[in-house]
Amino acid sequence: MGRALIIGCGGVASVAIHKCCQNSEVFEEIMIASRTKSKCDALKEKLAGGRTKITTAQVDADSTEQLINLINEYKPDVVLNLALPYQDLTIMDACLATKTHYVDTANYEPPETAKFEYKWQWAYREKFKAAGITALLGSGFDPGVTGVFSAHALKHHFDEINYIDILDCNGGDHGYPFATNFNPEINIREVTANGSYWENGQWVETKPMEIKREYSFAEVGQKDMYLLHHEELESLGLNIKGIKRIRFFMTFGQSYLTHLKCLENVGMTSIEPIDFEGKKIIPLQFLKAVLPDPASLGPRTVGKTNIGCIFTGKKDGKEKHYYVYNVCDHQECYREVGSQAVSYTTGVPAMIGAMLVMNGTWQKPGVYNIEEFDPDPFMDALNKWGLPWQEDFNPTMVD
Ligand code: NDP
């Protein structure tokens, strides 16, 4: 049916690329383009023999010019951005210049401050509309599936949704005292920032990890979870009818938190450049270089993830609760695509989002968050492509 250009070749991209190759009827051709071409070539080699035709290229996605040249040469139907959030705008600029659809999994981040907000990408709405191309923002799990779950809940179970709690539980154990499950720089920026939630039309800010709850997760068990700011709170607060409050919780083990506190206390998580032996370095980027590569956690991670949303709202005038979630097994993911479940739960929705944009199901000119599209084809695709969802109409609520 078409060809996709995939930018980035890290943990998430590797899963998305495996999934594109499983879905070769849609992804007849893909190009993997990243900063380090040898990684793209190694993945191509691993996937050789399949029906999807794979090519590779080197690209610096900070350079709009290089991206434009590459897109003009390859002529993809869609660009799937699985590099880092710093590259979102250069890639969107290149898509605009070449009139090519765009899909990503994370909001643009300015390198010098941790923001996790959409304003820079939303500013492209009119330009994308005028160019007649679609930008689908946040097609991972969270953001991503959490937005699709919200649209699904509103479409099929509620007249209005008043409260959403997004619960992201990783019950996996990789055996290291400290490692992050996806890009360490982005992960640590996210968890060391102040927390916040959306209530009655405004943000309520908390200190990092200030709000803690315990929750018993299906197929995982009892875990401590902490309230974090997360980018989808911003778009869901605007796009889901009737919202009064929306919160995001993520589980962390004690060892992770103790290490993180220590690294923070000694200044290793800072994104302020410092002078080191005559060079400017960013402590967090140095820390990333000494931590295990998330892609290497696959073989050693055991256990499951459980990510989902608990909704409270009204149906036919009555209060109603609804919990929809996915459980994913780290070792099953590893056996299937050679990655742990955190990369898997992001890479599968990235492939699905690219598929729906490419095949026209989700095309509308402009810049949209995922919950602005009809959730039904995405919900069906989740069941088909490895992330089946489960429902609970009488969930334990978070106080
Ligand atoms: P990785 O660090 O594993 O991979 C990033 C890839 O991008 C690497 O291949 C890297 O190249 C490449 N890259 C970085 N900078 C450039 C550049 N300037 N030009 C070209 N390529 C570049 O990250 P992950 O796979 O863990 O994460 C990918 C994205 O997914 C991130 O944006 C992350 O925030 C997002 N994410 C979203 C989630 C969700 O649920 N929505 C959950 C988890 C992640 P090199 O190999 O040379 O370093």
TrEMBL record:
| Pfam family of the protein (one) | Sacchrp_dh_NADP
Q: Name one GO molecular function term.
A: saccharopine dehydrogenase (NAD+, L-lysine-forming) activity
Query: Source organism's superkingdom?
Result: Bacteria
Q: What class of enzyme is it?
A: oxidoreductase
Documented EC number(s): 1.5.1.7
- Does the entry feature the keyword Repressor, yes or no? no
Which residue ranges does the record assign to the Saccharopine dehydrogenase NADP binding domain?
Answer: 5-136
The segment(s) forming the Saccharopine dehydrogenase-like C-terminal domain are 140-386
- Keyword Oxidoreductase present in the record's keywords: the answer is yes
The record's SUPFAM superfamilies line, in alphabetical order, gives: NAD(P)-binding Rossmann-fold domains
Keyword set for this entry? Oxidoreductase
Name this polypeptide is given: Saccharopine dehydrogenase (NAD+, L-lysine-forming)
Q: Which organism is it from?
A: Pectinatus brassicae
